[in-house]
Amino acid sequence: MVMQAQVQANDIIENDEIQMTKASAYQFDFKGIDGKPINLADFKGKPFLVVNTASLCGFTGQYEGLEALYQKYKEQGFMVLAVPCNDFGGQEPKGEDEIKNFVKEQYGVTFPVAAKYSTKGDDAHPFFTWAAAEKKGGMLFSKPRWNFHKFLIDQNGQVAKSFGSQVDPMSKEITSAVEELLKG
Description:
Strand order of the largest sheet: 4-3-5-6
Order of helices and strands: HEEEHEHHHEEH
Distance between the termini: 52 Å
CATH superfamily: Glutaredoxin
Oligomer: single chain
CATH architecture: 3-Layer(aba) Sandwich
CATH class: Alpha Beta
CATH topology: Glutaredoxin
Helix content: 25-40%
Number of helices: 6
Number of domains: 1
């Protein structure tokens, strides 16, 4: 009887692992910084970029590049989603209203911004756990190691590529990957 319970438990674990690898970004949602839901399923059929952000980071200027990237490709269906987090160096201590005003006033952000979420550890938003497990950034860049880590999601809701913080949103590396996905 104990042996049978162990086998069943192992089957469940294997099934969960299989199910997780078959999952897509479309199963996740975030609360928007404005309190409205952001369902990734609403982006179905279109590529999009999910970026963990912070207001007091050396990479905060990338908001400008994220907005430029969004403006360049939004007419083709491309979307950007910023997800503020305070996981790295306590660089997002602001409240959500302050973050919303900061990104709009300082960087003219018009793409969606989520409420603050964790991107690592036991409190991580499940999207970040799933996206990191896809290992699309190699050993070093598959999961957020700092603010402004970028996950590029394809039209099928799968992680196409993962970019480290140092990769500028308007870099050839990212724009080429976005253009390739927009071709279909």
